[in-house]
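Hi support team,

I've been running sequence recovery on a batch of backbones for a student project. Most finish fine, but this one hangs at about 90% for roughly twenty minutes before it completes. I'm not sure whether the input is malformed or the queue is just slow. I've pasted the structure tokens below so you can try to reproduce it. Let me know if you need the job ID as well.

Thanks,
M.K.
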């Protein structure tokens, strides 16, 4: 009689790339979406979504994202050394999706989706007006690992629509932003309209609560 196996495991080196992708993106959720604007060689604006993206640090502000080296975004970022991360609201999801179409090099997706751009302050690459938050970024390092490229960048300038910021406390009203996340690898997304609170506990509070430390 065989015991029921409780887990299946994989040596990633034995798997085809598409299966590694499916296993990773099916479990690493939700992923925020960087809607990245870059400058094409002819100075038109390229815009494309990337969910291999996250916050990495605050001293200085650092983010990272991973465009495949075949993508125009990667080539533009490598050549120009700068880009803007525009965050994606639920209302922008259809427009964002169109920018994932494989347009020919030098064609600006923006004309096709009715979003507008505004100039950035510290870099040449414009930002997306309709996004509530824009991060002007300068490339710090591009880390090559096989066919993966991780673009590590410093956030130079931060734009947020004032209705979403408590200026006094510097709190972002994250729920009101109504951003979306990628959920899995197919066409699934999540909204973030619900949140719950798990307050941080100090070591002292933890000792008191658990009854440890009492003599
Ligand atoms: C929500 C979403 C997330 C995506 N994330 C990535 C990603 O992290 N890396 C990547 O190489 N492509 C990703 N893609 C695919 C690119 O957006 C797509 O290939 C796009 O056409 C690239 O445009 P470009 O060649 O102008 O850079 C994603 C697509 C969607 C819809």
């Amino acid at each position: 009689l065989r015991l029921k196996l409780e887990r299946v495991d994989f040596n990633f080196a034995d798997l085809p790339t598409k299966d590694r992708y499916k296993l990773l993106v099916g479990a690493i959720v939700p992923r925020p979406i960087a809607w990245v604007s870059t400058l094409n060689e002819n100075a038109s604006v390229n815009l494309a979504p990337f969910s291999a993206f996250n916050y990495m640090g605050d001293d200085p502000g650092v983010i990272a994202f991973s465009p495949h080296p075949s993508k125009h975004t990667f080539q533009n970022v490598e050549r120009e050394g700068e880009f803007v991360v525009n965050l994606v609201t639920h209302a922008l999801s259809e427009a964002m999706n169109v920018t994932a179409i494989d347009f020919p090099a030098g064609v600006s997706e923006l004309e096709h989706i009715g979003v507008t751009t505004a100039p950035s302050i510290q870099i040449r690459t414009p930002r997306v007006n309709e996004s509530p938050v824009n991060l002007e970024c300068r490339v710090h390092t591009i880390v090559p690992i096989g066919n993966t490229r991780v673009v590590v960048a410093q956030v130079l300038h931060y734009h947020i629509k004032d209705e979403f910021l408590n200026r006094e406390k510097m709190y972002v009203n994250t729920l009101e932003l109504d951003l979306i996340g990628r959920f899995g690898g197919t066409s699934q997304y999540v909204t973030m309209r619900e949140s719950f609170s798990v307050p941080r506990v100090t070591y002292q509070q933890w000792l008191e609560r658990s009854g440890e430390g009492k003599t």
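--
Follow-up from support: It reproduced on our side and the slowdown came from queue contention, not your input. The CA atoms of residues 160 and 167 lie 11 Å apart. No action needed from you.
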